[in-house]
């Protein structure tokens, strides 16, 4: 999902091509919509909006998982996980709308398209973007409204959740997504599962500093990962299970591990981001308790646990003239005896199982 650096890059792009120009047409349906003109483009966290002249509502956009912008004649600005086989075809594939901007002096038309392959992006029209959802529900923006250390400490200390989960909470820190949170925790030397109320003073100071620094550096690089520092975890966190060349400060090989925290896959360096002994013991006990609960439910493996496992069809039996149950009346006596023997054993086993399950 595009995060704060990618959204700021998009906001910069709109400023470069559309600032002080008029929107003369919008391609979304057969109707044309004419706005007055753009005065500014702002963003908060993962949301950005276009401020317009005149009276009316303003577009507020969220990229979702794969949203991006594209200028006609240029390739789309991409997200790290998006395939880079970009095209300059127009109108572009997965286009949701196209804004036509016209400059007052030159009269030249610039076309800006909003693309979204997965259809998870959001476009809203708000009269007052900053005082209406979704922006009004967001927490601080690490780039434009980073809180003081004192305020930050209070916000962290009162939580008991894992620190990675808190960083992903947009009502706490707007714009911090999965890879940004991992990068922050790596540079702060904090394990993703560390509980907020268990962080030391030094760890919170480092967390406060790195939350601001990581976002600042990523934005200064215009979200171009090729320009990110060589010592960033970002360069090695992609491709779980693949070989990497990351080194520790002493030049020895680093061990990158992946765990799930806050519902997201988290990458961390085992040698530098360690849980305290108390935290490790607590997590181990919790894991053992969950395992014990699961084990006590049933010793049988549900059929649904395996996609390849198929239910066995029950054996259909026909009654013979003698009343005995057998697969076929044409079976030989030896086979009939063998069938009855197996059936008798199964019946005895079933009766014993039922007796064991009855309350004493």
Characterization of the model:
There is one protein chain. With 360 residues, the chain is an alpha+beta fold. It folds into two domains: 4-137, N-terminal domain of MutM-like DNA repair proteins, CATH 3.20.190.10; 149-279, Orthogonal Bundle (Helicase, Ruva Protein, domain 3). 30% of the residues lie in helices and 18% in strands. The chain has seven helices and twelve strands. The chain has helices at residues 4-18, 149-157, 163-168, 178-188, 201-220, 277-297, 333-357, and strands at residues 22-27, 38-44, 47-52, 58-62, 68-71, 95-102, 109-115, 122-126, 256-261, 264-269, 318-319, 325-326. It has a four-stranded antiparallel beta sheet, covered by helices on one side. Strands 2-3-4-8 form a four-stranded antiparallel beta sheet, with helices on one face. A two-stranded antiparallel ribbon has the order 9-10. A hairpin with a 5-residue loop joins strand 3 and strand 4. Helix 1 (4-18) runs parallel beside helix 5 (201-220). 26% of the residues are buried. The model is unreliable at 29-35, 292-313, 322-330 and 347-360 (pLDDT under 50).
